[in-house]
Request: fold
Amino acid sequence: MRPAGGHWRVRFGRMAMSDARKLVDNWSYMRPLIGVTTSELRPSGLATLRRQGEPDHPEMALGMTYVQRIERAGAVPVVLPPCVSDLESLIARLDGVCLSGGPDLDPRAYGADERHEELGPTEPSLDAFELALARAALERGMPLLGICRGSQALNVACGGTLHQHVPDHRQSEPGCQVSHEVEILAGTRLAALIGPGTVAVNSFHHQAVDRLGHGLTIAARAADGTVEAIEGPGFALGVQWHAETLADGRLFDALVSASAPALRIAA
Reply:
């Protein structure tokens, strides 16, 4: 039997306030949720997932290095399928976004009619989802980190365009090895994170920023002038190198720190 009404209400109120205080006290320890895009679709090689005679079904592909790096930085990675119809409900549950690497963006995404002969396979529907996600994150001031293709998607989401082919920027060495240097521009957020001057990075891209998107600034260049990093207001950062495979984890640490719920509420 429960206590008399008034006494029960007092006890219930005290319990609720106690739970609320615990929630507030532990808020700074909550691990942020970082959504990671799956920027690549591949034909499924698992025959057990289709009936005999059916064509291969597309399956999502994402390198484990992304989720491992995000978890190591202190967040909970959430893999995002490129087919969410209710983007508002999805992004409302996230604290930050990582746009991963993947195939070339279709030139039609940035209004280009001609296609370079070196342009690789494209996935327009995947582009549409990722660009919508990037714009939604930017509108909310949500921290965003773009890697390789993700950096290009950030630029296109802000109205920029791309060079469809940049030669001599795709290394043959493993991703854990660096292959060239880029110049980090002084006064940028990127310089505040890893320092100005030259830094050695890996390189697996053949597309790059052409016309810079609205509200973005250049944060790094290669020796040949190729844009290697861009950034926007708040924490919106894109780099052409695959930071997730290198030993230096400061970019992902910064993404997670900027995405911490307590910090975002305080801001």
